């Protein structure tokens, strides 16, 4: 190779190295952008998981509440029945004793 043909080859080699470095820099920039988007997505998924309950847990909790309400309803019914019986006794006693004010 002559001295005149060496410069274009060196120039092409430098251009090829520059092109490869530019491609690597663009690739790293795209990777950082993609990683940032993935981090945001994972943060959103984690926040959603932490803020919401599973359907089975919610169903179990609602069933416990329903059972508690039914128990309370039965207790109130029993208390009302006892109250009516006592009130009937008081009214009967009051009417036997003259029924005055």
Automatic annotation (TrEMBL):
Keywords per UniProt:
Membrane, Transmembrane, Transmembrane helix
- Keyword Transmembrane among record annotations: yes
Q: From the record, give the transmembrane residue ranges.
A: 6-25
Write down the superkingdom of origin.
Answer: Bacteria
Q: What is the recorded name of this protein? A: Uncharacterized protein
Upper classification of the source organism reads: Bacteria, Pseudomonadati, Pseudomonadota, Alphaproteobacteria, Hyphomicrobiales
């Amino acid at each position: 190779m002559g001295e005149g043909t060496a410069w274009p080859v060196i120039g092409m080699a430098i251009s090829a190295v520059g092109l490869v470095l530019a491609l690597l820099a663009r690739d790293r920039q795209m990777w950082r952008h993609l990683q940032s988007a993935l981090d945001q997505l994972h943060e959103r998924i984690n926040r959603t998981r932490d803020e919401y309950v599973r359907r089975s847990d919610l169903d179990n909790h609602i069933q416990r509440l329903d059972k508690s309400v039914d128990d309370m309803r039965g207790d109130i019914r029993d208390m009302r029945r006892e109250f009516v019986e006592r009130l009937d006794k008081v009214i009967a006693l009051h009417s036997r004793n003259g029924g005055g004010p």
